[in-house]
Fold:
Amino acid sequence: MSNENQKPTESVPAANTIDTNSTRTSPFLTEPLPEGAPQGQQQSLQQAATDPSVNGAIPKYNLPKGANTGNVGSTTHFGYQTVNSEDKAQKVAEVFHSVASKYDIMNDLMSFGIHRIWKRFAINMSGVRRGQHVLDIAGGTGDLAKVFSREVGPQGHVVLSDINESMLNVGRDRLIDAGCTNVDFVLANAETLEPFADNSFDLLTISFGLRNVTDKDAALAAMYRVLKPGGRLLILEFSKPVFEPFSKLYDLYSFTALPIMGKLVANDSESYKYLAESIRMHPDQRTLKGMMENAGFNNCDYHNLTGGIVAVHRGFKL
Structure:
């Protein structure tokens, strides 16, 4: 494991108590999923989908709106394909709607179970404390949120967010079954995080989700906005292997074995071909560190895991 920069001196943000009733049951466990529309807006995404006058067209999937910053040109990459920037979110949605039901078992198969060690390392780096507020962005099936729910305790609060309703439904079912009553579930686009107010969370995490975001700079800016002063961001993501012979072996595995596994287990080879391609198109360790610094984060560092196949990036809002 190699590190970039020294580990900063960490101060624990003051805990925010939102409810002193340890038996509080979240309304999000029984009511429909809230949608990532800006605060104060009453029109739902479902209405937007059924009323052509709203968007001019009915999208295949109803997704919370992304940013419109001008950071991304008219075209962008979807794996190795070049697509219209406005179409990428829909294409990513197709991938994750397709794989949602097999997502966890495929993670175990593809990584030989090592993804659990990567996630445990990220959780250990998080410094999460009792009573804190945590936002798990693109949290999917809830691996991290489940642990954070236990760590923050009944006086703490966890939000599991994802842009993809199929993934979020899987996560909600898992966490309800696990008795996690201090977790809310919110459809949100990482580029805007519009449902969330400024300075709301002590800890933000995004695990294997940033590479799928169209406007990564907008997403990092949104993360900085909703993080409390003194809080931290952790990004767990596939990255660039640091040892060239290992990198070639990794490429061979990614572009041959992964699509075959996807076909056999999830009946979907194309989604796992995209997975391999999206990893190669994601910024390398130093580039992502610089993007975090440009978004305002301080004391940024990264830790390579499994030879750089995965890296954990960390930054602080001071």
